[in-house]
Each structure stands twice: as C-alpha cells, then as structure tokens.
Amino acid sequence: MVKTRKRGREPKASASTTEATDLEYTNAAENAQNDGFIAENNVASTAAAENDVDNHPPKRRGRGRQRKSGLGHTEGTEPHVASSPERRPYQNGGVVLEPPSQPVANWESAAARVVPAMDAVVKVFCVHTEPNYSLPWQRKRQYSSSSSGFIIGGKRVLTNAHSVEHYTQVKLKKRGSDTKYLATVLAIGTECDIAMLTVEDDEFWEGVSPVDFGDLPALQDAVTVVGYPIGGDTISVTSGVVSRIEILSYVHGSTELLGLQIDAAINSGNSGGPAFNDKGKCVGIAFQSLKHEDAENIGYVIPTPVIMHFIQDYEKNGAYTGFPVLGIEWQKMENPDLRLAMGMKSDQKGVLIRRIEPTAPESHLLKPSDIILSFDGVKVANDGTVPFRHGERIGFSYLVSQKYTGDTASVKVHRDSKILSYDIKLATHKKLIPAHTSGKPPSYYIIAGFVFTAVTVPYLRSEYGKDYEFDAPVKLLDKHLHAMSQSTDEQLVVVSQVLVADINIGYEEIVNTQVLAFNGKPVKNLKNLANMVDSCKDKYLRFDLEYQQIVVLQTKAAKAATLDILATHCISSAMSDDLKS
C-alpha cells in the first residue's frame, strides 16, 4: 500500500495485513478498489524502516545452527573473508558462483559488474495535492510519495502516470547520487498509465546512458524488474518470466490495453520501473499487481507497443492525445442460430454491433445490427479475437489501440446480406461520467446554498469510497455503466449537497440528485446551468430533479443569500474558474 509522509508520529505497523480480494488502487492516501489489481504507486517512506527498528522484538538464540545476519557473517562471530565460492550478479538479476579471487569486501570490483542499464533507473519523489471532489472549492492536505522511473533518449524520463498524479513538485534522484533534481512533467497519459518527465539541469544527464527498448517478449522469456520498492532505500532487482500476454484492464486509466503478466514480484514503489529482458533491453514498465488470497506473484507490465505509442504520440503532436476507440458496443456471434438469423454464410465470422456512441465519428456510417467482419483487412472471429503472433489470438480492440487519434481505418461490415466497406476516422472516447479529470480541478456552482457539480468517477469515489460501485445510488451507477453522451459537452449535473441556510429550509436532505431542467429548459451541462441561473429574470428559480422532485426559490432572495452563505463557509467564489470564462 502507499505510505505517505505526514507530520506527527508514525503509527506502529501491524503484525500482519490481509489484502482485500477486490481491486485496490493505491495512488493517493485513500484506496479505490475495482477488480483485484493494485496500481503500485510509491512508498519507500522511511516509516517502514523506522517501524521495523522500533518494534523489533528482543533477539534470542534458538536451537540448531547459528543464525546468519544480513551482513553475511554469523551472529556473535567476527566477519571473515569468504573461503567458499562467492556470488556475483549477472544481467537478468540472478547470481553466478565463481571461485573467490579477492576478499568479498572489495566494493569497487562488485560495482564494476553491475548491469549498465540499471544506472538509468531513477527514484521519483513527488508531492501531491489532490482536489477535494466533495468540497470542490478546496484541496486536500498534500502528501509525499516515491516511485521509480528510467531515462530514455532525448533527455527524457518515463514513469507511471499515477506516480505523478495531481503533482505539485517532482524530483528525481539517480542511483548512487545524493542529489535530487527538480523535474518538469512533459506529458501524462492517464489511459496507458505513463508519464514523461525531463530535467533542465545538465548535470543530471552526465555519465548515464539511456535505456534501449526491445521487442515484445514471448511466453516464458526471462524478465527482470528494477526499481525502488518498499523495504529499503536502495535499488531492488526481482526476476521472473512472462506468464501471459493479453488485453488487460488498466486500473488507473479505466481502459483495456495490451499488457504482460509476469511472476516477478512487483511491490509498492516499483511503479514506473523498467522490466529488462536477458539482453538488457527494456520490454515494459511495471505498473500494477494482483493481490488475492488465491493468487501469488502476479504482476503486470506495460509492454513496448503501448510505450512506443505514447512516445510517438507525444513526438507527433507535441502533447499526449490518447488512444482511439471504435465507439461501439458489440456482442459475440458464437451461436449458430444467431448467425443464420442475421443472414451470415457458413464461412463468414464477425461480431454484432449493439449500440454506437452518438458522439463517435462512425455513428453516421455504422448502424446497430451491423456485423463487423474485418478491421483494417484483419478478419474478426465470432468471439471478437484476431490472430496475434504464432498460435495466439487477442481481442480486436488491440488493432484499434495501435492507431492514433485522427487516423483512418477500413472496416468491413455485413448489413442486410450485403458486404459494405467504410473508412472510419478514429477518435478518443467521450463518456457521460468520465473515469478521470486529466488533472483538472472539479467544477462547481453555488446558488442559495445548493452546490451543483458534474459527476465523475473521482467524485463518486470521494462520496462513496472505494466501493462506490456498490454504495452509490442505482441511477448514478446505471448512467456510469450504460449511459452514452448525446453531445461532446454533455455532463451529468447533480445537487451535491445543500449548505444549510434559512432560504433553503426543507431542502436540506437533497444529496447527489440529478438536475434535469431549470425553469422548463433541459440542463445540458454545468456551465449551461450556471448561465441560465445567472441570467434569469423570472420571479422564481425552479429546478426539476429526478424522482419528480422540485426546488423553487425566489430569484432575488436566492442571489442575495448566496453571498452570506459563501462568507459563512469561507468560500471565495460561487463558481469554479472554468465556468467564469
């Protein structure tokens, strides 16, 4: 879990902790669960080491052999020069036995045998100031965290997006250095959980070579994860093999992209660290792991195709533009009766389009009940997979994710027993309830004590905790999971809470209720609502809420009472800055 540095005395560490079986996302001081993965951000807080010292039980001698200490000699005896074969590291993090040629304490010769690529791995220190989505006019208390990163070409550093989320200051420290260098965040790819940094101080780049990228590894290929995880301050190396390659759920970005599953240990603080193959080439970035009572040593790595997409996107556009999606919902066509009913021939395969996003560019070309036969010339199977290397198949969304925003793809569909081909322009996905806010502060508007805001996943998490998918109101969850935006600027506006005052007597219990209309006009988004209220000349302000609730206020009294309510609650403005423009 993420440990953060706070003022005051550190609490004592518990003897043991039980990992929850659901998904915990450890990006901030609070966890957000969702499906069993842990986004491994930060830690390396000195609290772990301090607790270990403070709570260490008295040593006692047991039966059997004498216990060896961590320094390599037996407790209660003097250290001696090893007479047995000594262990030295080799490139993928294992060890090789060789006869001793000199005392083990020769640190210079040991340092000379370190893998060169490890010198490009850096420790990332970040100070975060997260918005308070429940009280959107203020921010939460700042906290500190640490994670890993590595140097690539062009004087740039890669790490995880969740490692620098809501950053106010980022510093980098090289291996073996005692200096922390101020870093600048160039781009944050929330969907792919990658961030790009740079350092203006030229001294930082001296004496270090950038990491080279390798090809996508095969199953059972050896990988070595390097980083600065919990348990110590120095660099850590863990080894394993590639266990699985498939489309994964990226916890931080709430997206599905290509990912690697490995059996090397990935712990808190490993986030952003590189995964090397046996040739010293980087084949991925550690970013999350699975914590479950029935699973052990399951870690996940962002593979090089996703990394290169992020880098080339930034180089091509000067900013991160995201991963495009097709903007449809589809179902499998594995049932033979379904295929016959849709007029498909025995040699035809594909997936059935159920719904199309109204805001998607292809909404005027494709139709519900169309059957996608191929994407960019690659045939799609009845289960929605396409060929992927020798003897492997993968979801056809992989083909879409390889494209860039604004690219064109050729899609062949079956419609009314005819084969039609369309060239579709790909774009990013616009959800009615966004999964993230891209670092922007939340929007709000206050009138007569009524706090209006737009619903986002961070807002639901702030209101209902990490189990918001179980505890949030059913109507909000239904819109979160199934509703589609009818326009690119549509938002789900709710009354977040009512700041109690004389003018809103009787309305105090309205919480997280959607606003449907104002004075008979539909509410399109929060800015639209704020503009209608501010320009209202009617005698009354009438808000139509869901469940047929109605709120009515006198216009002049409501606007006059707003100033007193803002002063009472020390709120500087009745609306967020983004609504003022």
TrEMBL record:
Residues 58-70 have a biased composition (Basic residues). Residues 433-578 form the Protease Do-like PDZ domain. Pfam families: PDZ_2, PDZ_3, Trypsin_2. This is Protease Do-like 9. It comes from the Eukaryota. The lineage of its organism: Eukaryota, Viridiplantae, Streptophyta, Embryophyta, Tracheophyta. Residues 325-426 form the PDZ domain. Belongs to the peptidase S1C family. Keywords: Hydrolase, Protease, Serine protease. Residues 1-97 are annotated as: Disordered.
